[in-house]
Amino acid sequence: MFDSWWTYLVIIVAGFLATDVWRWLGVLAGNRLNEESESLLWVRAVATALVMAVTAKLIVFPTGTLSHSPLWLRLGAAGIGFAVFLAAGRRVAVGVSVPITLLVIGLWWLG
């Protein structure tokens, strides 16, 4: 019986050490950072570029259901979604829901 619990204990401890300790250290170190410092602006720019690269890859080279949709539909949904996101005062919920709704309507209409 101890052998079955040992596995779970190892997973919990390893998961905690691999993630939570570093997150708490990041919080402690982050409190001392100047939000307008050059290094933090660079980190923010790199993080934004990585997110945009993944988004572009998903739009141009999709997998799953999106791979059956035309490129014009994916690009149009992303472009309109971004425009509505900006027009709505940069609300993330709007920026996510509008392109998804457009894709669903487009796939339904084409299907």
UniProtKB/TrEMBL annotation:
Entry keyword set: Membrane, Transmembrane, Transmembrane helix
UniProt key word 4Fe-4S: no
InterPro entries on file: Brnchd-chn_aa_trnsp_AzlD
A Pfam match: AzlD
Segments passing through the bilayer: 6-29, 41-59, 71-87, 92-110
Entry protein name: AzlD domain-containing protein
Native species: Neorhizobium lilium
